[in-house]
What we know:
Elements: H1 2-24, H2 61-70, H3 83-90, H4 96-132, H5 137-160, H6 171-204, H7 216-227, H8 245-252, H9 258-263, H10 266-285, H11 300-317, E1 327-328, E2 332-333, H12 334-352, H13 364-394, H14 399-404, H15 406-424, H16 428-454, H17 469-491, H18 498-519
Antiparallel strand pairs: 1-2
Helix pairs in contact: 1-15, 1-16, 1-17, 1-18, 2-3, 4-10, 4-13, 4-15, 5-6, 5-16, 6-16, 11-12, 11-13, 13-15, 15-16, 17-18
Amino acid sequence: MAGRWLDLRWALSVLCVLLMAETVSGARDSSTGAHVSPQFPASGVNQTPVVDCRKVCGLNVSDRCDFIRTNPDCRSDGGYLDYLEGIFCHFPPNLLPLAVTLYVSWLLYLFLILGVTAAKFFCPNLSAISTTLKLSHNVAGVTFLAFGNGAPDIFSALVAFSDPHTAGLALGALFGYLGLYVFYVVTVILCTWIYRWQRRGSLVYSMPVTPEILSDSEEDRVSSNSNSYDYGDEYRPLLFYQETTAQILARALNPLDYMKWRRKSAYWKALKVFKLPVEFLLLLTVPVVDPDKDDRNWKRPLNCLHLVISPLVVVLTLQSGTYGVYEIGGLVPVWVVVVIAGTALASVTFFATSDSQPPRLHWLFAFLGFLTSALWINAAATEVVNILRSLGVVFRLSNTVLGLTLLAWGNSIGDAFSDFTLARQGYPRMAFSACFGGIIFNILVGVGLGCLLQISRSHTEVKLEPDGLLVWVLAGALGLSLVFSLVSVPLQCFQLSRVYGICLLLFYLNFLVVALLTEFGVIRLKST
């Protein structure tokens, strides 16, 4: 599954980037390698020439900071921290190894943030949504999980197509993009319904000869529930007492289980110390609904606080806070309106509910937590991409090599953590479905909706000119991987083994080697 995900995600992402690049990029100076931004006659404004950001390492030390701040190629598309400016403007040259070490340490901590967010907040809320709506794992994977993984990319695509010079497709083609995705989702739902109907009919005429086979995760859960002693009974008070609101809030925001802390090893305790700040921040901002608990994880003071903080986090993490600081009518920022509306809703919820009984609409908190955790994952993944890009500039990696390796992996890290965590928690079908559904959602809805919103502003056509052998290598690798899965998966009766995953990983490694050799000119077409 991991190989299939990386293969499809990377190749389609590169093809989309090439598609947009052919539309908006200007001419490339063949002698100097400098990029010149496209000149639009209607603008009437002189554009600043775009120079390759890697050239900063060849400049004098006194000129590097100004080059980073004035060159558009050195600016990040998103994120909260400017890592290139930090290296070349705030660290002296002799402390460059220290800066790289700090960046790598922060990169590792971002991986920790991604893992904690996916395992304890994103996946539980997604499971609660599928349980509440009675969705199969396949349908949940191609809908909610695909949306959670691809929603930030959709907003990026909308921004990319907001310029009239970057958008333009026939209206019929636009509805074709959107209609194709709707048809895909409807097909998955219909096939799932037919499968359940046939299975229900076969169970009526079959005798229960053998017991039901549980998955590994289900067996572990059953064995832990049947063989383990409830140590929590020893710590329960003999006399019943009513917790105050402050006590409930403090207990809900405490990420540390003292009983588990005493039983764990020193390694687990050291790792838990690093996780504590992240878990506390996520507990404060992301609600979690647990259908397996009697109270469904209802904590009235904390959940009411979530109604204020979670929407605020959503608007401040979406596109790195661009929409949050936008002023409505030039007077009131969006985040102020969100805080006011959230406070009013939280007040009504607090006085209309009780601490002991979850409200009837408590399941809606699963959607809020799902969206908030997805945007936290996107924000962390964006910082990962920016750090990797900065390291690529420092080590003077070419743009193609950077795109094939560090940036491709960085762009995929958020979705990979979500899918891997779901598979490990016993939902492999949901994760596998999202590998395909997320890419289809990004391309069809992102391109289709983005162009559809801007069709009235522009009538230019988007053209893809396959210039160079690398484009054909990308398209060929994508086609071969799809054909391989199309043939091998039915031959295995849809029972995927480790051999299938290893073959996909080997295919990706071979593709990466061929693509890099093509970029470096080792593999090239003979000139006639």
